[in-house]
Specification:
Structural class: alpha+beta
Strand content: 15-25%
Strand order of the largest sheet: 2-1-5-4-3
Number of helices: 12
Shape: rod-shaped
Helix content: 55-70%
């Protein structure tokens, strides 16, 4: 078999190209092994590189020799190699190189490598940066690099410097209108502290937060308007109740005038005395219903009114009213109970009992007068009193057995309606 030196230029060119391709393949495989930190594969690619390099140089030199003399060729021994052996070596190198590349690829597909981690991080929509205590970046993905260039105008080299820029306001708005939220946490890596700096896209959340803020301000404004409107409603209702009370008293006064005329001209002493009692009670009721405001001393108010009406009030002790509105509601109940006891039942005594309950205080107003023969029909002052107490959050009911009683639940924080 003829040596490599005497081959035709075309054959030498073919062998040189083949060996050169193997050289490039070996270099590429070694570089990949180094980047992926696969020492075993890197070492196995070195013989492939060396042999391919020698064959490439030999073929190149033999091609330059004009006369084909061995003395003029530095790689004389390799140049005298039978060309079949050179082909066999290239075939073996090609098979070995292909096997190494396939093995390396399969290994990279099955195992996690630093490069695969970097590639995975680059695919994340969030920005990530891992850096040491001195700010030196260990691992940075593309999103964080882009964010850093926009916020600082330079590449991300110092993670601590980037955190100093965003730490005062961890929510940053970018030029494209998106909003990113920065966060940082400390990690322990083999006894060394590593900082993880992340930046998440919160554009949608920021938009909803801004919308919620505007809605909250609008609700607050509406609440203030409703509160003012409620005050106006309360005043309007109060005035309507006063007008109703005045109309009721006016009708009662007309009835009393007619009754008094009849007693003066057609009745005797008993009818005239009864007419005077009715006048006294209705005059007190007129004072009550047309805007009279009780004083601060509840016991004095009840005692004074009882003396004017002519009824004795018996109590087991009244609680102290820390809320003026609750005190006014109690006085209103007592006045209504006293007037009804004298006017409708002819009572001489009114018994007031108080009992604390979770929602406030329950007051029971009972009298020793005549027991009602039928159902109690609420009208006039009693109906208005119920509306007033229920508007304040309390309740009112009547009992007929064994004696007539008015039971009112007055809340601790009732409104003065």
């Amino acid at each position: 078999m003829s040596p490599l030196l005497v081959l035709s230029p075309a054959a030498k060119s073919l062998l040189g190209l083949w060996s050169y391709i193997m050289l490039l393949a070996g270099i590429a495989g070694a570089v990949i092994g180094i980047r992926q930190k696969r020492t075993k594969h890197t070492v196995l690619f070195l013989p492939l590189i060396v042999v391919s390099y020698l064959l490439t140089i030999t073929v190149y030199i033999t091609g330059l020799s004009a006369g084909g003399s061995q003395e003029n060729i530095p790689a004389a021994r390799l140049a005298m190699m039978p060309w079949g052996m050179a082909v066999l070596v290239l075939i073996l190198l090609s098979a070995a190189g292909m096997q190494l590349l396939i093995s390396l690829r399969r290994l990279l597909e099955k195992e996690i490598s630093p490069m695969s981690i970097k590639e995975s991080l680059d695919e994340l929509p969030a920005g990530l940066c891992f850096y040491r205590e001195d700010g030196t970046c260990v691992l940075v993905n593309k999103v964080m690099e882009s964010i850093c260039r926009e916020l600082t105008g330079r590449d991300l080299q110092d993670g601590r410097a980037l955190w100093d820029v965003v730490s005062n306001d961890t929510r940053q708005k970018l030029s494209d209108g998106s909003v990113v939220q920065f966060s940082r946490r400390s990690l322990d890596l083999s006894g060394r502290r590593i900082w993880e700096l992340s930046a998440f896209d919160v554009t949608e959340l920021a938009g909803k937060s801004e919308l919620l803020k505007r809605d909250s301000e609008r609700v607050k404004k509406l609440s203030e308007e409703m509160k003012e409107y409620g005050k106006n409603i309360d005043e309007t209702v109060r005035r309507q109740e006063i007008l109703k009370a005045r109309a009721s008293v006016h009708d009662e006064m007309n009835r009393m005038i007619l009754s008094t005329e009849n007693a003066l001209y057609n009745g005797g002493e008993k009818e005239r005395r009864k007419a005077m009692e009715s006048w006294k009670i209705n005059a007190l009721q007129l004072i009550m219903e047309t805007g009279g405001s009780p004083g601060a001393n509840v016991r004095l108010d009840i005692k004074s009114l009882a003396g004017l009406i002519g009824i004795n009030v018996c109590t087991d002790g009244l609680p102290e009213f820390s809320d003026p509105a609750a005190g006014r509601l109690f006085v209103a109940c007592a006045k209504e109970a006293m007037i009804n006891a004298v006017k409708h039942a002819g009572a001489g005594n009114l018994f007031i009992e108080a009992k604390r309950i979770p929602d406030g205080t329950e007051f029971r107003f009972a009298n020793d007068g005549r027991v009602p023969e039928g159902d109690i029909i609420e009208s006039g002052g009693l109906r208005l009193l119920r509306e007033r107490i229920e508007s304040a959050g309390g309740s009112l009911r009547t009992e007929s057995f064994p004696r007539f009683a008015l039971v009112a639940v007055i809340p601790d924080r009732g409104e003065d309606l």
